[in-house]
Structures are given as C-alpha cells and as structure tokens.
Amino acid sequence: MTWCVTTQAAVLPQERSDAMYHSYQGGGMSIDGPSILLRKNIGNSVSVTANYYVDTISGASIDVLATASQYQEERTEHSVGLDYLRNKTLMNFSYTTSSENDFEATSISFGLSQDFFGDLTTLSIGYARGNDEVGKRGDDNFLEQADRQNYRLGLTQVVTKNMIVGLSFENIADEGYLNNPYRSVRFIDESSARGYRFETEAYPTTRTSNAAALSANYYLPYRASLYAEAKVFSDTWGIDANTYKIAYIHTFTDDWIIELRSRFYSQDKADFYQDLYQRSEEFNFRARDKEMSTFSNVALGFSVSYEFRFSAANWLKKSSINLDFDHVRFAYDDFRNVLVDAPVGDEPLYEFSANITRLYVSIFY
Q1: Cα separation, 27 vs 339, whole angstroms
Q2: Which of 25, 49, 92, 211 could form a disulfide with 233 if both were Cys (CB 3.0 to 4.6 A apart)?
Q3: Angle at 34 between CA 29 and CA 35, to 5 degrees
Q4: Which 3-state string (H, E, C) describes 99-127?
C-alpha cells in the first residue's frame, strides 16, 4: 500500500515546464510513456498548471498469466490545477481524469496550507474525491462503480536551523466495486488435470484505510542533508503495513545534486486472502491478488540532477536535467508461483525484481 501526504509553505510554486519519460520493467510487466507538465503564474497570487501523462502497458503479472494471456493497453491521464496565495495561506484545487479501454476515473482535490509562528510551522489539510467506472474487455454489459474519498492533515515544524520535522495523517474511504474483474482465486479440484481450478475474486464493497507518517530532514554543514521517514498503514481488510526510508542528498559545486536512498516496505495479508482455497466459494469474500498477500520489498535508488542558469537578460531563468533510478526486490510469504510444475500447494513462493526509471528535463522561467 502506498500513500502520499505533502505540506507546502505559503509561496507560489515556481513557473516551469517539465518533459518526462518514465519506465517500469519487472514481474512480467512493461510500463512506460511520456509526461508533460506546464505551470504558469498569474500575478503574485495565482498559479495554474496542466499535466498530460501516458502509461503504455504490455505483458501481464503472474496472477493474471495463471488464467489469461498477455495484453497491451494505454492509459491516458489529464489534470489541471489552480493555486491561490493570500498572505500566509496557500489554497490549491485540481481536477484529474484517467482513461483506458476498460476503466474511467475522475477526481477532484482541494488543499490548504497555513504558516504560523514566524513561518516556522506549516499546517496543511486536504480533501479529494474520486469516481471510477470499471469495465471488462470482451463483456460490453459489465460496468461497475467505485467512489473514493481522501482526507489529509499535515504539520511541518522547523525544530532547529538545521532540522525540519513533518507529521502527517491520511484517511481513505472506498465504496463500491473494489476488486479487479480479471483476477481469480484458485481452489482444490481433484477432478481437474492440474488439481485445482479458478473462479472470480469477491471483495467487500467498503474499505477504510488510515495512515500516519513521521519524517525528518537534517541539513549537514557541508552542503548535504539526511532524510528519514517512517510510515504505518492499516485498513478494515486486515492489512497492516510499515514503510521505512532513508536518503542522503549531496550538492557538488553549484550544478550537481546527487541523492542516494533506500526504502523497506512490509505488509500482512488481507483477512480474506488465500493462495489456495479448499473448495469453490469457500468464503463470501475471496482474494488471490498478490498485492493482498503478505510480502515485503526493498528498494535501492539514486537521483542525479544537473542545473544550469541562463544570463540575467534571458527570460528563461534556469534549466535542469534529472535522472531517477530505483531497483526494487519483492518477496512474497504466501503467494506461490503456479506457473512452475510442482505439487498443488507446494509451488515455490514467488519473488521478482523491478527497475523504475524517470528521466526528465525542467525549464524554469
């Protein structure tokens, strides 16, 4: 499970344009595509933004390959946003749409941040609401709905001249069709040649999730900093998760910034998850999605940024080129690789690695 809660001081974001290429390779999946971001300020109080993002998806994860073949599709996302600054208060609004051949989603988001105590404390709140329309390839009559609400609260405090601490909370309420129409569970069937058969997953129609995060950024005396973060997550499906992250950021000359980072994530399985059921429709709710299982992952990554400035007479202020790379290793405690020929229930536990790359250019004006 992942979540993101951010806080902002009362200042408009910088005017900029970004062009990015992103890539995910791992677990039988290939996801890549471009993204374009444009941000422009209007006077000293308003900033508008627009973003275009594309995912081209090919392949299939192991739990899909157990019952279906590889596929290819494209997801396109559009978003627009508005930031309004008044004194020490920053308000923002965004609207996002996402579309693919069997899924449509829209969401709105509102946020507010306020500085206090000589700008040493920033309090932020946020709310988002989304609606999903879920279809199914090959079945024109299949159409389900899901509604999602998100509440956020964050506090950032300057503790010393070298240290900033952040605390954030998030609540997510989901209702409607919350599972994937292509995923199946397996159950023992001795009459089958492989000893088991598959049937469609069945999830509850409500889910409430809560998350909290504590972070700290400590600035070192030699143009570097250390960042640490700890997150906890729990939901009404029985999933409990923990995330720990540490990063080291170093500046070389006036042009280069390098970040080295490590992240560890672990979670317990959902109450209704099993890799193998004893019979068909054994329980009212059933899941075999590996993201509902007990698993952990370890990520190692780095970022490199090179920045160059233009002359004072140029309308462009500066530009940067940035490369992010993460290698992630996943290990599952109770999800088995059914693509391997082995006795039913004794297949090897599944594990895989993935590489995530982002390359983008930013221009500030």
Answers
A1: 13
A2: 211
A3: 120
A4: EECCEEEEEEEEEEEEEECCCCEEEEEEE
Q: What are the tens digits of pLDDT across the range 12-40?
A: 899 999 999 999 999 999 999 999 999 99
Q: For the residues of 18-65, what is the DSSP string, one character each?
A: EEEEEEEEETTEEEEEEEEEEEEEETTTEEEEEEEEEEEEEE--HHHH
**Is-contact 276 187, C-beta < 8 A?**
yes
CB 201 within 8 A of CB 274: no
Q: Which residues touch 189 (CB under 8 Å, ≥6 apart)?
A: 195, 196, 197, 280
Phi first, then psi, for residue 105 (nearest 5°) are: -140, 140
- What's the confidence (pLDDT) of residue 25? 97
Residues 216 and 148: their CA atoms lie apart, in Å, by: 30
DSSP assignment, residue 291? G
Is this structure's pTM higher than 0.85? Answer: yes
Q: Which two tokens stand for residue 184?
A: 């199946």
Give 53's contacts (C-beta < 8 A, 6+ positions apart): 33, 34, 35, 76, 77, 78, 79
At 219, list the tokens: 């600035």
Strands 196-200 and 184-188: antiparallel
Q: What is the DSSP string of 52-83?
A: EEEEEEEE--HHHHTTS--EEEEEEEEEEEEE
